[in-house]
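User: Could you check the structure of this?
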Amino acid sequence: MRAARAFWRSHQHLDVPYDYLCPDSGLHLASWIADKRRDPLRLTQEQRHALEALDFRWIR
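Assistant: Sure, the predicted structure tokens are below.
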């Protein structure tokens, strides 16, 4: 979640390029986001709200 917030602060969106690696952790952020979009029920309501605050787009 921290990596998503950091990316959003820098770019004002979460359309993360597929090959983007987080500078601090080396996390493959695009894969992390794709995983959250595929199975949002694994997230807590708080986590879903935090992502939505970053204008996160869910798969519908």
